[in-house]
Amino acid sequence: MCVCGGAWTKREEMLRKHRPRELTILDRVYEHISLPPLVVAAIDTPAFQRLRSLHQLGASSFLYPGAVHTRFEHSIGVAHMARTLLLNIQHHQPDLGLSEVDIELGMLAGLLHDVGHGPFSHLFEDVVSRRCGIEFNHEDMSEKIARRVLRDLVPQTHVDVVVGLMRGKALLGITYGEIISNKRNGIDVDRLDYFIRDSMCCFGKPTVDVRVNRLFNSARIVCEEGQWQLGFEQKLALSLREIFTLRAKLHKNVYQHQVTKAIGHMIGDVIHAAAPHFRVGGHTLVECAQDETLFLKLGDWILEAIEASEAPHLAEAHAILHRLRTRDIYRVAYSSALDITMRAPMAAVDWPAAILEHAHPSFPLNADDFIAEVVVINQGKGTEDPLESVLFFNPKKPSQPLTRLKPAEDLKHGSPLFTPLQFEERTLMVFERRPTNGAVQRACERLNADPKYAAFFTDSLPFYNTK
C-alpha cells in the first residue's frame, strides 16, 4: 500500500522557497547521487547541516586517520540507499503500489535518522544519561528534530510516517517499515551504508564485497503472519552471512577496538568533567541535552572549545585532553574472555565493585582509578544466528512458502563451512585511568581465581593484548 492523499498537493507550494530542481552530488561510495527537491530542502536546514560537525566514528578517528567522515555524508548515503531499494521494489512488485511519495518519505527517514546524535555520538549519550543522571536518548532527540525539520515541508500525516520509518515501527498501510531500521535481523539501509562507508574510510576499501545492487535486485517485501518485512532470494544467503560477519569484524577492529575504547573513555571523562562548567550560549552541556533548540548548537567542536577555554574550573578536563594530545591514553590493565553461556548470572555482577572487593590490602584502589566494562561483539542477534531471522523465497517456485535457513539445513545456500561455531564474544576489559603499580591487575587476577566468579571466565585467549 502507498502513502498518498490530497494533502500532498501542497508540496509544490511548500517547496517554492527551496531549491526547485533535483540535485546531483558526488559520493565516495556510490559516486553520483541524485536527490529530489524535497530531500534537498531538508538537507538545506541548520538542523541537518549540523551533521557536518559530527564524526561518524567518534573516537575511532584517533585510531584510523582516514575515519574522519561525518554523519552528514552517511545520512545522505542512507537516503540514496533507501531510494535505490524502494525503486527496485517498485519495479519488481508493482502490486504493492509504491508511489513517488513513498520513495521520498523513505528517503527523508534515511536522511534524518541520525539528526539527534550529540558530540561524539554515543559517548555524549552515555555521559549525559548514565553519569549525569539525565534521561537522554538520541532516537528520541532525532524524532523531535525531524518533526521540526519536516513541519514546513510535508503534511503532518507524512511526518508521522517518516518518524515511524526512522524507528522501524510497524505502520498501518506501510509495507516498507523496516528498510531504515530493521530490528528483526539488522539488514537495513542504515547499517549497509555505514558498514561499507566505515570500512572504506578505515581500511581503504570494503573488507567484504557487499554488492548492493545484486542484494537489492534480489530483495522483495514479503508478508508473514501479517507482518511486512524484507525477504531475499535463497541464493543471497551466503552474501548475507558475509554482511553479518562484517558487522562483527567492524566492532572488533574499529568500534570496540581497545584504542577506540580507551580514547572514548578519555573523551567521556573530559565531557563529564566539563559538563557543570563549560557553557554554550550561557547553558551547560546537560541543559543543552534537555532542550532541542540548545542541543542543535552542539557538535564535536566542543572538545577544542573546552581545550581553548581558560576557565579555571576546567583544569581536570584540560589535564585529560593534554594526555590525549600526547598519546598518553588509558591503559588496558586486564582483559579476559567471558563464558557466553553465563550471560544471565553475569548480568547481575557489578564488575567495578567486585574488582574493588578483591583489591590486595597492600595495593589499595579507588573506584576512580579504573574503568571496567564488558565488551560485547556479535553478529547482531546476541548469541543467535541472525541468518535464521531472514525470510527467503525461491523466485522459480513462487507458490512455495517462505522459508528460513536452519542449522545444518539447505547446505547449498547456508553452507556450514561458513557458519561460525558461536555468534557472540564477551570480554571483561579493565582500563587504568592512572598508574596503580599493578594494583588493578592483581585485583582482577584475584577476582578470576575466586570460586564465586571463576565460572564466568574461560580459558580462551583474551581479545586484546595488555602488553
Automatic annotation (TrEMBL):
Q: GO cellular component terms?
A: nucleus
- Note the Gene3D superfamilies from the entry: 3.30.70.2760, Hypothetical protein af1432
> What InterPro entries has UniProt attached to this entry?
dGTPase-like, HD/PDEase_dom, HD_domain
Gene Ontology biological-process annotations = dGTP catabolic process
SUPFAM superfamilies (UniProt xref): HD-domain/PDEase-like
Q: Which residues form the HD domain?
A: 71-195
Write down the SMART domains for this protein, in alphabetical order. Answer: HDc (SM00471)
This protein's source sits in the domain of life called Eukaryota
Q: Which residues form a coiled coil?
A: none
**One MF term from GO for this chain?**
dGTPase activity
Q: Please identify the protein, giving its name as recorded.
A: HD domain-containing protein
In which organism is this protein found? Leishmania major
